[in-house]
Amino acid sequence: MAPSETVLEITDDNFVDEIEEGEGLHMIDFWAAWCGPCKIVAPHVAALAADYEDKGLRVGKLDIDSNPGTTTRFSVTSIPSILFFKDGELVDKVIGAVPRQHIEDKILEHL
User: Does residue 42 carry a catalytic annotation?
Assistant: First the structure.
């Protein structure tokens, strides 16, 4: 699923600029096109991106197959994995196809 206007496409090339040098809370969905559970989580990620955009949350998706450097750097071995970065620092993660409320609780915890 391609990122929407409210969801950034994150890559090995733009990760440092977009996430590590960014301010505020970023939620990055590590996914792959062939991943069934990723397709379950994707609508939640998109909806949360829209719902929390005006509260300062920036959401991105990173395709693990196209971006092995960042995937390896953050030891992402299971997908979907949603990593939360605050002011450029990794602060939390959610692994697996979890309910929307679980992801939303993490957002509220870190905003």
Answer: no
